[in-house]
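Section: protein folds

Sequence with per-residue tokens
===
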Amino acid sequence: MRGVWVVAVVLGLAGCASSAVQQKEQSAAVADARARLGMGQCDMNLAQQVHQLSDPQLDLEAAYLCLQQGQLPPLELVLEDFEKRHPEAPYQDYASYLQAMVPFARFEMAAGDDQERLRVGREAHAQLTGFIRHYPESAYRSEIVPRLETLLEGMAGSEYALAMQDVERGQRERGEARLRYLAKYYPRSKAAVEAQAWLQTGN
């Protein structure tokens, strides 16, 4: 019986030692990734490392840096299934905020391509309004609202630009229909005022 007890103790100590080694390796890997982030590195290789380490705070740090640099695919990878992987982690709203900023960033990057701005703009609108509904009390709501206003103003501008292109190409009815759509669904935008004026004067 004493022999069994000794074996159990030895196995227990071995398990503790193994756990300590794994924890030390994890800490070293997290420190390495954090150092690379500190040097401004944000790419898919680092994103894969961060995602595999599955440290919630590190995920958020990496996602923020990637957003600052406009590196959106690494950001998306880092925060993939964040809520599922870290259900008890604090700052769930911050993770969702960073995720919602991805399509908004793509919208801004699409300047000059009105069709693309409308496409990604719709996705951004869904993400931003979804965040507000899901986290109505979040401190990041104040960051989302002005971006929504910027988004809607930008989408309205793209609608107006495309309408004018239609008119210039001889597709006047199509252009007028787009202007009416603009005036109806973006009534507070500057472009809506211009659209109403154009529809009233016909030019």
Observations:
- Confidence is low (pLDDT under 50) at residues 4-14.
- Residues 2-38 form the longest helix (37 residues).
- The two ends are 99 Å apart (CA to CA).
